[in-house]
Amino acid sequence: MAMSDRISHPIQGRLIDTARLGLITIAWFAALVTVLFGESARSLTEVGIYCFILFAICTLPRLRRDSLIILTVLAVLTLMLLPTTPDLDALMGAVEYVLIFAALLPTMALVKATAMTMPSVQTSQANLGALPPEASAGGFQLTGHFFGGIINTGTFAILSAVLPPESPETDRRAAAEAAIRGMVTSAAWSPFFVGFAVGQSFVEPQYAWMAIGFGVITATLFTAISLPAINRNFSLQQLRLALLCLRPVASRLAFVFVCVIGAALLFELTALAAVVSAMPWLVGLQMLRNRDKAGRILGQTKTALNNIADDVIVISAAMMVAFLVNSYNNINEIMQAVYPDMLPGWVALMSTPLLVTLASVVGVHPVITSTALLTIFSGGGADVHPALLVQAHLIGWGTGTMSSVASLSVISCAGLYNVPTHKLVFGHNMMIAFIYAIGGGLLLSLINFLIW
Description:
By secondary structure, the chain is an all-alpha fold. 79% of the residues lie in helices and 1% in strands.
């Protein structure tokens, strides 16, 4: 290979990365304006659609192997479920439908970068590091749960910094498992997860907010049961110490939720749209108050935008499949041929978290299984309260990412805590994930029987 060729390849790579960054930023801005102004900003919406398409084209050659596998499975599902090849108008409608996902993931990257610079977060981190050994597992789980509700996988970087690198593998593994349990189960109540964005797209907005209420119940029960069950020396004193770690950030977490819910109520937005529209303003105010940190926040966000490209493509592709399947209404016809009557609610509520968990163990990402199950059970496919169906999906999203070879949470913690991935996948969390999936399904089935 000539010297000029070796030099040109890195230059071309940097140019493509710069182009992708510009395209996703424009699509992000267009999605935000669309949420706020609707059809009055139609021209900008169309610009965002075309920029997102170009972003996807530039990203496809650089996708990770696991992302390519997921996209292949989605392509096969599309061929199986659609009665005909979608025309151009249908495809463009699907791209417009998923444009908001081009805003959600970058918004969460911006929020995570901001949180990492906040003194209150750093204080909580220091408090966690000062916990006695017998309380550390509970502290990791609780802190991971509440931090995870806002910054998702960014929680792992904060918690891993607490543990000394020379710690024995048993301690590192226990800390990693606790952090994963805490973070992924916050999906049950947090509107800041992609899983919630997927679930709320299948129901009316009021049911999505009700699902958060049910999620508070299921997450509280899971935490209350799992902490003493997993930690044999657990005590109320340990719980008090762990909760004290959260005191520095408690008011900020509450303020963020009030702002998001307030935006939803004031502007009649879905949970997804409320997150996308409210969080950039909150981050902007934070940067105005701390101008010296603005450069660091934007720099980390820029890096994250390159790293999350795979996630943006995979989530968008899954939601495009759901949009097209619902548009053709073909899956309902298939289900009518298999089971002509409405499915009982308990079938939907038990099978959704359990099947998502089972599929995840063998590497099928929850976005695939959940999208298919929600398409089948929503819109009258099952005799189930819509909010409970979304909650079943969110439980499955958490259990499906708690112990899976395809879980970004597991892969991230394996690297941060220096623990082999297979020990996190086939460890304590696998049994806990199935217990949570089955127990959550039973609880939701009981609630469905009582209220629906």
